[in-house]
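name: query_chain
kind: protein
chains: 1
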Amino acid sequence: MEKETLGDFRIISQIGRGPLGDLYLGEHKFMKKRYAIKVLPKELVESEGFLARFEAEIGRVCSLEHLNLAKVHTVSSHNGVYYLVTDYIADPYGESTNLSSYLGSLNKKLTEEGVFAILRQVAYALDYIHTIRFDGRTMFHGALKLTNILVGKFKEDVPHIYLTDVGLGNVIGHGKVLTRSLVAVAKALELSPELTGLESEKRFTSQDADAAKMTKLQRSFLQNYAFMAPEQKLGSKEGGSPKSDVYSFGILAYFLLMGYLPEGYFKMPSSRGDLTRDWDLLIQATLRQSPLERPDSLTALLEQIARKELSDIEPSIDKISPSPSPAPPEPPPAPKKVEPTSPSYGYASSTVLSSLEQRLTQTGAVSRVNPIKKPEIHKPEPQVAASEPANVSATATIDIKPSEFKKPEFEDNPGAIFQTPKIVEPYKPQLKEVKNVEPLMTEMVIIPGGEYLRGSNIGARDEKPRHKIVMDTFALDVHPVTNEQFVRFLEVMGSEKNADNNDMILLKDSRIKRFGGKLIIESGYSKHPVVGVSWYGAQAYALWIGKRLPTEAEWEVAASLGKEDRIYPLGLNIERSQANFFSSDTTPVMSYPPNESGLYDLAGNVYEWCEDWYGYNYYETSLHEPFNPKGPAQGVYRVLRGGCWKSLVEDMRCSHRHRNNPGTMNKTYGFRLAADVK
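structure:
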């Protein structure tokens, strides 16, 4: 790069290059933490339609959080340079190593258990990606290959695997990714642009070819092409589907087992003679020509292989004899048992494929009518906005609607090997029926509907312009949720993860600890607000208790009542005797005076999660859509309000907006709940 800095990051070195952009090791100038920074190709950024794809796709890429995915923390642009900031995945030596480099560094081939451990982590990540849906479409990786699989720390000789570049093909454009790969090869071979059909890319002919460099570029292109599914090679408009990832997974499995890519009439893994599992089943299930005939769940397919060894199963499908002709002169002889060392080959007959489909369907690995679906959480139906502001009557009741509440389903975790010694059986929480655990309800204050002012003309840019909104009547908890309230919820859940496997609370950053399987609150902190809670944890608690998170507009209206003299919840100014800020720890709820509405701790103590996605320019939209604004339809961050115990006085303002990734958990984040009013 021409400059040593990019936005808030200091560039240390370049660690990779590919069709999706150049990869750098960077360090945040203030936090001093290292990240991987992918700079998107300038010519692609300037291409037609890029910005539209970027805005539509990048939000869903940043929303992914999984044990085996390199987390995308933020996306930004600086002087026309678009870049993504992701986790820096380092191997035991502190270097960034992909699976291709790792395999090349080994002086021996992978064991069968080593192959299974790697594939299981990849399958676990891909199945998670395939459960995510946006705008009616299911997410998929689209570019799975050796160089997009990073190797992290080791545990018991097994590497922790991370997938990168998830969904970036959709952002950049799958056609342009292939074009850049072809240009890279043509540049090394010094081909004429007219021969490649890339007349617009005349720049590459000015460079000299280098034999070592040429080989590397050729491998990059061929690997990118070899791992593509047939429908991707034919130029699918969508760039593929989740079933394309299944095909790429089959190519990966074959390469790890055999040491080369499957081409033509290739041998089956059983020809090795030293394998104990039915890998032929996996290869022929995943490498089907038609996407509809490929398995839906890779994890289920691997579990089937893990349960049975080769001696326990039927003969391999390539060894099944075709059906005899209708009227043979005499019955054909019975097929002889084939020894494990005998070679077998891909591309079975129609009879073979029918047998494969029957076996997969019986074991549950394939289900054409019931694909994997993300667990659904039913929220309370939103109240229809009234044409006129609602008046609060003496008979107004708070509408607390119990919602469908799901406990997490515990599955075998491929990452468990990194958490417990191999000689000790991994801990699996036992789901026991919890009886007589009732939530501790919080008193609520009713905020009347009507016209209010929100925003500020003297605050930060994202608080402008100050404008009118019209709100329906709603109710808000008088104080944030406390440790003694949240611990009951964790006892019912039996885990710190929700039904979608998202972390709800980070116990090491909270005052709730787990000893001997029991949850214990630190002495003296029962009445303190719970901290270390993610947005997912706040939302799950709201569903359990039958309430909901407040919208950003509801929170600000409750804090200021839309009045000019309410810069802070208690007036034009605020003192440390009125709120807990610029201090060293949380305080018990209701330790400071309430505001005019009777609500406590709206300023300081803990930041409070809101329901809304954060939008920097959203107030310009809210200005024209003033009825019960609920924030942008999608985004990267969720809104937090109110400041915390370590904040400065500026953060205490009613109009101050804070935001962070919904999965973020720290010692300053808590929440309170809202409800509709009938």
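note: Residues 114 and 158 are 7 Å apart (CA to CA).
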